[in-house]
Amino acid sequence: MFGTSFGAALLFTSLGIFLWGGFNWSLELTNTEEFCISCHEMRDNVYMEYKQSAHYSNPTGVRATCPDCHVPREWIYKVSRKIMASNELFHHFLGSIDSREKFIEKRYELAQHVWQAMEETDSRECRNCHSESAMDAKGQRALAVEQHRLAKSQGKTCIDCHKGIAHRLPEAFLESEHERFEAEKVPCYQCHEEMARADKNDDWD
């Protein structure tokens, strides 16, 4: 009797370890850049843009890959993100953005989903690598120091200002932002550092 109970317990324990290990192996397998660009929608569009960004190539040689920016590190949040990603598989097989034209048409909507998620988590994935306490303000440009100070005082998060850090910004977004900045008389130099800094916010006159 004892031997049977012990054998059953050992069997179920082994089965549990096997299933748990298989689940985590699958989780990590789908958490690689190779997996992210295995579909042509990602490989031919946003991945090509990412390869031109500072997150892909920079003087320090530190590279942030797709999962670093788009998948949480904490296990429970990572699993939740993977479940949500099943919707992306659905649209892959549906052919929602299987051409460049379709992707461009949907680009702003897709970007808004990502930006909203990052805002809701206070840019959690950005902060995995970028720590405010570790920033050396002396090494930053004067404009960056000023903008970080303003952002902190206004309760903004990383993605509020760094939307185009790894991928091109949608044209519709650029147009709407330009109109907003004009209405608010935001000085041009705050976005276009190459322009002479004005003493007054009269750049739009």
Q: In terms of per-residue confidence, which ranges show pLDDT below 50 for 5 or more consecutive residues?
A: none
Roughly what fraction of the amino acids lie in strands? under 5%
Compute the number of strand runs: 0
What's the alpha carbon Rg, rounded to whole Å?
23 Å
Structural class given helices, strands, pairing? mainly alpha
Q: State the shape.
A: globular
Described by strand count, sense and barrel closure, the largest sheet is:
none
Level of helix content?
Answer: 55-70%
Distance between the termini: 91 Å
Task: Compute the average pLDDT.
Answer: 87
Question: Can you lay out the helices and strands and say which pair or pack?
Answer:
Elements: H1 2-29, H2 33-36, H3 40-43, H4 46-50, H5 66-70, H6 75-94, H7 100-120, H8 124-127, H9 142-153, H10 158-161, H11 171-184
Description:
It is built from 11 helices and no strands. It has helices spanning 2-29, 33-36, 40-43, 46-50, 66-70, 75-94, 100-120, 124-127, 142-153, 158-161, 171-184. The radius of gyration is 23 Å and the shape is globular.
